[in-house]
């Protein structure tokens, strides 16, 4: 999108430069036209009587027509240039709006990520606490089981001794 805007800016600048050149040429041609008109006014009597002057008058009229066509073309170029300027402006506004929307979205996502990180940290802390509690319970059960096995072993020994004593009696 930025490449399009940059390309349009370049095109706008080149057209703007062309427009300035055209304006300078138009001013020069207008000055020439004024000089020619002055010359034409001064030589009008001679032009009517001399055939080469008639050709010159026709040439001047042709140049005048050409200048008018050139001025119309220049107006058309100016309209095109304004259209391009408006288009570039709209594109820039659209680009700025899109950037603002993306900034807002990124900010929201960052905030959401922060909340999730806090939640994960809390869960990890609880899991660690539960793991310690489970280890303690397992150790306690292991001790109790060991004691129970020891008691069973003693019981078997005592039972065996009782049987032996009974037999001896």
UniProtKB/TrEMBL annotation:
<dbReference type="GO" id="GO:0098535">
    <property type="term" value="P:de novo centriole assembly involved in multi-ciliated epithelial cell differentiation"/>
</dbReference>
<dbReference type="GO" id="GO:0005737">
    <property type="term" value="C:cytoplasm"/>
</dbReference>
<dbReference type="GO" id="GO:0098536">
    <property type="term" value="C:deuterosome"/>
</dbReference>
<keyword id="KW-0963">Cytoplasm</keyword>
<dbReference type="GO" id="GO:0007099">
    <property type="term" value="P:centriole replication"/>
</dbReference>
<keyword id="KW-0175">Coiled coil</keyword>
<protein>
    <submittedName>
        <fullName>DEUP1 protein</fullName>
    </submittedName>
</protein>
<dbReference type="GO" id="GO:0005814">
    <property type="term" value="C:centriole"/>
</dbReference>
